[in-house]
Specification:
CATH architecture of the largest domain: Alpha-Beta Complex
Shape: globular
Distance between the termini: 51 Å
Number of helices: 11
Order of helices and strands: EHEEEEHHHHEEHEHHEEHEEHEHE
Largest sheet: 6 strands, mixed
CATH class of the largest domain: Alpha Beta
Number of strands: 14
CATH topology of the largest domain: 2-enoyl-CoA Hydratase, Chain A, domain 1
Helix content: 25-40%
Number of domains: 2
Structural class: alpha/beta
């Protein structure tokens, strides 16, 4: 794939000249959805050609040990280095070239979804959270109608929907505390319409009652939430209807209104919506076995339960981009170090 190999930062003007001098040529429709820039010895002037905000995914890499170069982070989408525990927005990886190959493979498989993700992350960081949630839904709806998601739907193995015997979300009041518990353990609390509606109802209840000073969100069974219920994918009448449902009946809008009162307790797998929704909360606690992951690019989609907003507000768009582009798992301790969770501690017995 063109653009997969690192380009020295000082060669960017020559590269753009090779593409008719048009930064717009760096996009998936013209065969270059990824640009990898070697930042060794680079200065702000070397990266000036990127101020045009090319449509392609821009990865900045630094293969040497510290000190890391001082580069304008706003001009790139992901920053990779071999340093353990580097400062934000850098992502430390054992092998920079292997990490680039991982990103390249993901972008090659879903160039449209990858490009839309990066464009959205660039935009959303400049919007108020509620507005950014709407922007995410617009982008998600666009991809729902796209060829990459349709191909994923056509190639997946059909699954039979399993219905729970009780409410999808248990709601219990204990004095000033509202306890919400995801209650589909037989499907690892997969996030479906019943979970969405149950959470939205619970958050609206708290919004209407100032006497509820604390809201606790937990998940029953071995996993907090295994992400979107795959049996529901492709079942909405059309992307417009799906967009309106997300923005008028979704859990994110009412959660944003009460987020300062919410504490989430994570454990096990927290995939897709299983971390996107919790990340809005004022406090996120994770058990040591917690693993977080954003797999949506592999489905020709982007995070669609508010994750491009909630996760970005906690760890920045660069690290969010890395998680979403690669689908790589993030263990609890690293999530804590990044700020995606606030504390790692055992689940009370």
């Amino acid at each position: 794939m063109p653009g997969a190999g690192p380009v020295p930062a000082r060669a960017l003007p020559q590269l753009l000249a090779g593409y008719a001098g048009l930064p717009e040529a760096l996009d998936p429709l013209l065969g270059m959805p990824l640009l990898v820039v070697d930042l060794e010895g680079a200065g702000p002037a070397d990266l000036a050609p990127l101020r045009s905000r090319p449509a392609c995914v821009v990865i900045g890499v630094h293969r040497a040990a510290e000190p890391l170069p001082d580069v304008p982070a706003e001009l790139v989408d992901v920053l990779l280095c071999p340093v353990t525990g580097p400062p934000a927005p850098w992502v430390g990886v054992p092998d920079v070239d292997a990490a680039v190959a991982t990103v390249a493979a993901a972008v090659r498989a879903a160039p449209q979804a990858a490009t839309v993700l990066i464009q959205l992350l660039r935009l959303a960081e400049r919007l108020a959270p509620a507005d950014a949630v709407v922007a995410e839904s617009f982008a998600y709806a666009t991809l729902q109608a796209g060829a990459e998601h349709r191909a994923w739907l056509a190639g997946r193995t059909p699954r039979r929907r399993r219905r729970s015997g009780g409410p999808a979300v248990l709601v219990e009041r204990r004095g000033e505390t509202l306890l919400l518990t995801l209650n589909r353990p037989e499907v690892r609390n997969a996030y479906d319409a019943t979970v969405r509606d149950g959470l939205a109802e619970g958050f609206r209840l708290a919004l209407a009652d100032d006497g509820l000073r604390h809201i606790e969100l937990r998940g029953s069974g071995p996993d907090f939430c295994a992400g979107g219920d795959l049996t529901e994918f492709g079942t909405t009448p059309d992307p417009v209807t799906a967009h309106l449902v997300r923005t008028t009946a979704g859990a994110a809008p009412p959660l944003l209104a009460v987020a300062d009162r919410v504490t989430v307790h994570l454990h096990g797998n927290c995939i897709g919506a299983g971390i996107e929704v919790p990340a809005f909360a004022a406090r996120v606690l994770a058990a040591p076995d917690t693993v977080l992951r954003l797999p949506e690019i592999g489905m020709g989609l982007i995070p669609g339960a508010g994750g491009t907003v909630s996760i970005t507000r906690r760890i920045g768009r660069h690290r969010t981009g890395w998680l979403a582009l690669t689908g790589q798992p993030l263990p609890a301790l690293q999530a804590r170090d990044w700020g995606l969770v606030d504390e790692v501690r055992p689940v009370p017995g």
